[in-house]
Amino acid sequence: MTHESLQLGKAAPLPRTPEDAVLDRVPNPHPGTAYVARFTCPEFTSICPVTGQPDFGIIVIDYVPGPWLVESKSLKLFMFSFRNHGAFHEDCTVYIGKRLAEFLEPQWMRVGGYWYPRGGIPIDVFWQTGAPPEGLFLPDQGVPPYRPRG
Predict the structure, then answer these.
(1) If you placed Cys at 86, which of 49, 50, 51, 64 could pair as Cys (CB 3.0 to 4.6 Å)?
(2) CB 71 within 8 A of CB 7
(3) Which one is catalytic: 41, 55, 62, 92?
(4) What is the pLDDT along the chain (150 residues), one digit of tens a residue?
(5) Which residue ranges does the record annotate as region Disordered (predicted)?
């Protein structure tokens, strides 16, 4: 993939759905090196497929790159595409992980979905490709368990 084909540096409309979102990737400048890249989406939103009400969460993506890095503007547009997408928390979280893992071919990846309460119950969803590489420095995702006010 050439840099000319990237959405970076160009006007790019918000995709209507996650399936319509175009992800871009660039070559990993350190292939074979086990390091963690983290993306945190602190204001992730989607739509409840039953009620049509908005759902809010924090999505944390950790991955050990293989041959590719995800280009961050395309990732941002992909994540924004969920704003009008009706899906349960589990589906959103797992779909994000599977789509990125298939596209990037990482050495390892995990996605943590930390969702605010729906119906009075917070739902946290976790997905990963397998065991992380041995000896990898892997920090906590930094999102505390849900705690109500008071």
Answers:
(1) 49
(2) yes
(3) 55
(4) 445 578 888 889 899 999 999 999 999 999 999 999 999 999 999 999 999 999 999 999 999 999 999 999 999 999 999 999 999 999 999 999 999 999 999 999 999 999 999 888 899 999 999 999 999 999 999 998 887 766
(5) 1-22
Whether 48 is a known active-site residue: answer yes
Per the structure block, which two tokens stand in for 15? Answer: 């995709």
Domains and CATH numbers, the chain: 13-128 (3.30.1130.10)
Region class of 101: left (phi > 0), else alpha (psi between -120 and 50), else beta: alpha
Residue 71 CA to residue 91 CA, distance in Å, equals 23
Expressed in percent and rounded to 5, the helix, strand and coil fractions of the chain are 20, 30, 50
Tokens of 64: 């050990």
Place of tokens 């739902």: 123
Give the pTM.
Answer: 0.93
CA–CA gap between residue 88 and residue 85 (Å, rounded):
10
Tell me the binding residues for substrate: 70-72, 89-90
Comparing C-alpha atoms, which of 35, 90, 91 is closest to residue 63? 35
